[in-house]
Specification:
This protein has seven helices and 30 strands. The protein is α+β, with helices and mostly antiparallel strands and 431 residues long.
Length: 431
């Protein structure tokens, strides 16, 4: 009996019903031979393509053999999954650093919104963009395809947002709003969800934290839809937030103060940075190193160690505001920052040294199509740290209002209709 009218049989169904065992065995043997010619990093990436490839790589123990080869051990050497995982993480971090610092770069740009978009979040190959018009869009990065769209309630602005596998959480006007990935939308009851004007929000399941203009951080439970705590962070407005996995709220203020408080209490734990003449515009926390990174209105980037509550470095990275600073998850090597001057800069997380800086080459481009129109491809240009950026047309370096970092890629928004994907190719053979 065939499939129902109008339905399509999946590739896996076709293989199981029509492909003889001998042919599947041939596919297995052929792929084993192909995979054996790859380096360790490429085999890891191949294992993430599909379950069939993952199964072949696991059964053939290719990762174990390549790991032992890399370590110059014999096949009788000791091996553990933990040591392999540590090595693969180190390899990924080094691969990322080499790509961002020494790799070639091209930039894909497409029109993502009808009005200006200035916020983006990236997780698992998906990017959520919004703030500017009345819609948020979820994009697949494979072909820049918009796969889901979420409308904003009428009459209220979208201030900030975040997402996970099942939902989008947004700060809308003076309320928290949840969009389920199945299309349902719910707004917290006004009595529980309404507060003094919020300027930023961060979400870490099951709680969302809103930074408010009265200097408080308000903690909301996603399931009870109630405000569970109000934490006094500053006497001045909260401008940015970051959350740690060990229940800490890190907040920056308009007067340049950075404070740390516990999610489970309403008491401030520590002050990392006292009042300063420059306000804090961006914060991010790295759980792998316990480092907090901040960007200021005067163009400084700084780093603190939460274990000692001490500042590790401070670097003037831009002549103007640093709007966003991010790193790839678990990466303890590089930090990417962007701001009002439109230059994308890569820093060393441990020293604050500017490793390299990029802008878009205004004179070269090609184009292709996507679901939202035309993708314009341009070449990225590496510039010296002391280069006079006023010589670069502002059309090639619009302000970077937000950025998100993934493996060998950075997504940026610019308070315009366009979204940019910066793609880095690693020129160094790590294998």
């Amino acid at each position: 009996m065939g499939p129902p009218p109008g339905s399509k049989r999946s590739p896996s169904m076709k293989r199981s019903s029509t492909t003889p065992t001998s042919i599947r065995s041939l596919e297995h043997d052929t792929l084993c031979i192909i995979f054996s010619y790859l380096g360790l990093f490429d085999v890891v990436r191949s294992s993430a393509v599909c379950k069939f490839w993952n199964g072949i790589i696991k059964r053939s123990k290719l990762l174990q053999l390549l790991y032992l080869k890399q370590q110059r051990r014999s096949s009788r050497s000791s091996f553990s999954e933990e040591s392999l995982n540590v090595y693969l993480e180190e390899l990924a971090i080094e691969h990322q650093r080499q790509s961002l610092v020494r790799g070639s770069l091209h930039i894909d740009q497409w029109k993502g919104h009808s009005l200006g978009v200035d916020q983006c979040r990236m997780k698992r190959g998906l990017v959520l963009t919004g703030v500017g018009d009345k819609v948020m869009r979820l994009w697949s990065l494979e072909r820049y395809r918009c796969i889901e769209e979420y409308s904003i309630p009428d009459g209220v602005p979208l201030v900030d947002f975040d997402f996970d596998e099942s939902k989008i959480v947004g700060l809308v006007g003076t309320q928290i709003c949840i969009w389920r990935r199945n299309g349902q939308r719910s707004i917290f009851p006004p009595r529980e969800g309404q507060f003094i004007k919020g300027s930023c929000m961060r979400y870490f399941d099951p709680e969302a934290v809103v930074g408010c203009e009265d200097g408080t951080a308000r903690v909301f439970d996603m399931y009870s839809k109630k405000c569970s705590r109000i934490v006094r962070m500053h006497t001045e407005p909260v401008t940015c937030l970051s959350l740690s996995e060990d229940q800490l709220i890190i907040s920056g203020s308009s007067l340049g103060r950075i404070t740390v408080s516990g999610l489970s209490s309403d008491q401030r734990v520590a002050t990392l940075r006292p009042t300063d003449s420059t306000g804090i515009k961006s914060l991010c926390f790295n759980p792998a190193s316990h480092h907090v990174f901040a960007g200021t209105t005067a163009g400084y980037a700084s780093c603190w160690d939460l274990r000692t509550m001490r500042q590790l470095w401070k670097t003037r990275v831009s002549p103007n505001v640093v709007y966003s600073s991010q790193h790839m998850r678990c990466d303890t090597s590089t930090l990417v920052v962007g701001g009002i001057d439109g230059v994308l800069r890569v820093l060393d997380q441990n020293t604050g040294e500017i490793l390299t800086s990029y802008v878009m080459d205004h004179g070269t481009s090609s184009s292709s199509g996507c679901t939202h129109g035309v993708i314009e491809r341009k070449i990225g240009k590496r510039i010296p740290h002391d280069y006079n950026i006023d010589r670069i047309p502002k059309t090639a370096r619009p302000p970077i209002t937000c950025l998100a970092v993934g493996m060998q890629k950075v997504i940026t928004t610019h308070n315009s209709k366009n979204i940019r994907m910066w793609k880095f190719n690693n020129l160094r053979d790590l294998n």
